[in-house]
Amino acid sequence: MSTVADPSISALPLPSAEDVPDGVRRLWDRSQEVFGFVPNVFVAQAYNGEQFQAWWSYFNLLVNKEGHLTNAERELLAVVVSGLNRCTYCAVSHGAALRHHSGDPVTADLVAVNWRQADLPDREAALADYAEKLTLTPADVTPEDLAPLRAVGLDDHQILEAVQVIGMFNMTNRISTALAMVPNVEYHAQGRAPGA
């Protein structure tokens, strides 16, 4: 196992390609092919290769696959939670994804800092409000907090998915923050108009 730390990516050592399971190497190769870079989170967490693959399998299913919420709604939740938790890696990387899926870089940037200033539609505002409460004061969450989500048309499948996405990002934010993960520079330009 490699024992070389790279503080530009993570506070812990980073594995080399020879030190990770085949599935991790394939993910790295596929990322390089599709994105033109390997996300730093894919390298930093792969130090424990099997655990990383288990996390990625659920994360990918929950965030990247066809689901009950739209891609933009899931990324909205990711950015709200990450902004509240002050997780630089996730706020930047999922801010890029929100810009991509929403086509709106201004709103995505506002959501990362203070979603209340983003003038969100009612459905998105209800999701953001619930994400804020579950993130900041989970002990105060009650079943009654689901009523505003139902009032804006969310069904039970969508509510459960929202809860799962919020939970996933609270966990992932803590991992990324604890390891001092730094977002890839490529994320900063994604989803923005050329020259802007």
TrEMBL record:
TM region positions: none
GO terms of molecular function: peroxiredoxin activity
Alphabetically ordered keywords of this record: Oxidoreductase, Peroxidase
Protein origin, superkingdom: Bacteria
UniProt KW Kinase keyword: no
Keyword hit for Electron transport: no
Carboxymuconolactone decarboxylase-like domain ranges (all copies): 51-116
A matching Pfam family: CMD
Gene3D superfamilies cross-referenced by the UniProt entry: AhpD-like
Cited PANTHER family: CARBOXYMUCONOLACTONE DECARBOXYLASE-LIKE DOMAIN-CONTAINING PROTEIN, SI:CH211-175M2.5
Protein name: Uncharacterized peroxidase-related enzyme
Lineage: Bacteria, Bacillati, Actinomycetota, Actinomycetes, Micrococcales
